[in-house]
User: Fold this.
Amino acid sequence: MSEVFRLFVRFTLKPGHEEAFDQLVRQMLASVRDHEPGTLIYTCHTVEDRPAQRVFYELYLDRTAFEAHEEQLHVRQFLAQREHHVHGVEVDVVALFDGKGVPVSG
Assistant:
């Protein structure tokens, strides 16, 4: 059985680009919901007291599902368009250590 694939992505937005970036995310998320069964969780969060920050949590069935996500037209368009709004990006691939509400393995 393949192991699920998880990552956190932190975006630092250019000043004044928050609403435009959020709209871009909403458009992409509609397609993620409709066309990516291997994308189990794909969420975007604002950060309290840091209006220029957005944090994504992404959970995929496995690395193959993540790779399929990256190849989607709506994702490629998002990646190209986000550059107008983003000052910096940090990506962390993470592995579950322990938690509540999720299986420990996988």
